[in-house]
Amino acid sequence: MDIVVKRPVVAGVLGAALLAALVAGFASSYLTFLLTGAAITTVFMQSYGLITGRAGVISLCQLGFAAIGAWVVGWANVADVPGGFYAWLPLGGLAATVAGLLIGLPALRLRGVNLAVATFAFATALDVVFGGLAFPGQDDFTFVRRPDGFTGDSGYFVFTLAVVTAIFLGLRALDRSRVGGALLEIRHSERAAAAHGTSVARGKLAAFALSAFVAGVGGGLMAGQLGVVAAGNFTTFASVSLFAIALFVGTHNIEGAVAGGLMGAFFPLLLDAVGIPQDLAALFFGVGAVQVLRLGGSQTDLLRAARRRRRQTGDLPIPAANPRPLVPLRLRAPLECADATPALEVRGLRVRFGALTALDGVDLVVPKGHVVGLVGPNGAGKSTLINAVTGFADHYDGAVLLNGEPVDALPAHRRARAGLRRSFQQLRVPEALTVGMYLQVAAGRTLDATDVDEQLALFELPAADVPIACVDVATRRLLEVAGLTAGRPAVLLLDEPAAGHSGAETELVQRRVAEVPERFDTAVLLVEHDIELVRATCDSVVVLDFGRVIAVGPPDDVLADPAVVAAYLGSATP
Ligand SMILES: Nc1ncnc2c1ncn2[C@@H]1O[C@H](COP(=O)(O)OP(=O)(O)OP(=O)(O)O)[C@@H](O)[C@H]1O
Question: In CATH, which of 1.10.10, 3.40.50, 3.30.450, 1.10.3470 is domain 19-304?
Fold first, then answer.
């Protein structure tokens, strides 16, 4: 039992080896055939787990990719391509990858239902193509030759299981990498991913390509199992049914992929055994998928969450590190702005939403080494300014310069990479990640274990391996700031980082924000309604009202300005 918890990879590989030995030694040929089918369906589930489970992209054409993989393996068999099945299988996967890139590229601009329709159309088109085009070997029954050493049914099951295990190991490595973390962040919030420097388009394209490769390998395995395949093995209907299973069980989790494989292979047989037509299985899968919308998660996600709740007793573990003290720790006295070099310059920024002018010619400078407060009553245009500066506004007039260079032509993720990072008013921290992985993703650079622990200790956050799902909302807000500062950007725009915090937490935010310039070499633009926090943290303050700057200067002067007080009347008085 201990090994399952402490060495899950070893336990998984041993379990697969044991299953292979049992099936090879004791299973009837019919059961072996069914289990091989289940293993191949598990490969399809792994592919759905990649594209939909991890990247959040709805794809209804995974069996189309499988068909391409199977076709190429059939062709390689007929053409006697050197290397045998060991070479043909990855060749099938690669051909499917090319198709994945081709369908992925035009689909990048689409989301949700539109993307579903596009992939459905691709699947249907492939149905038509393969319907009229016989698979190689189909007409004259040229059976695909299985891999040397695994030609018997039991042997082929062992081979298939080895492929399934290898894909699981690859997916596990992906999940532990920053790329895997970025894919999960794309699923959770494309805007947050872009704000951390991730190219959402590239992430989705990579997910399409990888999932198509896996599906193509699944199709190739099917060709090896059946010897001869036909278009009927890869219909759009079957693709959609498997998608529904994947959504219902959650095949981005290993147990979900296995359960999905077993369900896809055995459930129709079960229905047949009790006299219900097999095709009705799709109906049950569809109902299961709709349940996900109602329950807010797949079955395996919900089970994992319940297990976490049961296990989580007492305080969360804390990192084994102390933050490096600042020598000397600066007690913040407002800095003079006049001579400082600008890190961020905003010139004549104008944003319109139809008839409404949300920002009307705003000029603003955030000097290097400074914390600048941006305040103003509700609706003054503060968030709109952050959106425009960081590349999240559809259109604006004016100019944004980072370290003297205009960034107006850059999309959001490239501005983030250039050193312009932001937080969001609404929390966008994905529950599916651990605290440490989020820190890596949000930093947009690889941090070593010591950096991670120090950063977590600095912000009084739980240890790196704690799942974000276990931490409260205020802690997630702090984690967001910890991640952004770990990236050491040139400029950090924080949109109400203290919202929802208790008194003690606000004090921690205050201390950490004040230290950001010195600790991380990052200038800060702080949007905050908590005027005391602004007063204690900022070197200077800019006040917006109805999209215009009405005051700029040292905090105490600006916050006592009668025009500023008047602007705030009716909301909070500064
Ligand atoms: N996407 C949008 N479409 C239309 N109007 C918008 C949009 N976003 C903001 N606005 C409007 O632009 C103005 C500025 O809004 P913004 O959210 O920037 O203000 P804010 O100062 O951040 O307010 P708060 O302090 O409440 O967050 C408001 O009148 C708002 O209703």
Answer: 1.10.3470
Nearest alpha carbon, ligand 1 atom 1:
353
Q: Where does 342-568 sit in CATH, by number?
A: 3.40.50.300
- State the pLDDT confidence band at 260, using cuts at 50, 70 and 90: very high
Place of tokens 């060749």: 91
The whole-model pTM stands at: 0.85
CA distance 560 to 221: 74
Q: Which residues line ligand 1 (CB under 6 A)?
A: 353, 356, 358, 376, 378-384
Q: How far is the CA of 383 from the centre of ligand 1 (A)?
A: 7
For residue 9, pLDDT over 80 is answered with no
pLDDT digits (tens, 9 = 90+) for 106-140: 767 777 777 778 888 888 888 888 777 888 888 88
Give the Å distance between the CA of 384 and the centre of ligand 1: 6
DSSP 528-568: -S-HHHHHHH-SEEEEEETTEEEEEE-HHHHHH-HHHHHHH
Among 351, 359, 375, 383, say which to mutate for ligand 1: greatest number of ligand atoms within 8 Å of CB.
383
CA distances (Å), 93 to each of 239, 370, 559, in order?
A: 17, 53, 64
Task: List, in sequence order, every residue forming a beta bridge with 523; answer none if it has no partner.
Answer: 491
Report ipTM for this prediction: 0.96
What is the C-alpha separation between 564 and 573, in angstroms, rounded?
9
Distance in angstroms between the alpha carbons of the first and the last residue of the chain: 60
Pocket perturbation via mutation, ligand 1, pick of 356, 390, 526, 548 by most ligand atoms within 8 A of CB: 356
pLDDT digits (tens, 9 = 90+) for 388-428: 999 999 899 999 999 999 999 999 999 999 999 999 988 88
**Which of residues 427 and 86 earns the better pLDDT score?**
86
Task: Give domain limits for the chain.
Answer: 19-304, 342-568
- Residue 547 Cα: closest atom of ligand 1: 14
Select from 191, 349, 352, 353 the residue to mutate for testing ligand 1; criterion: most ligand atoms less than 8 Å from CB: 353
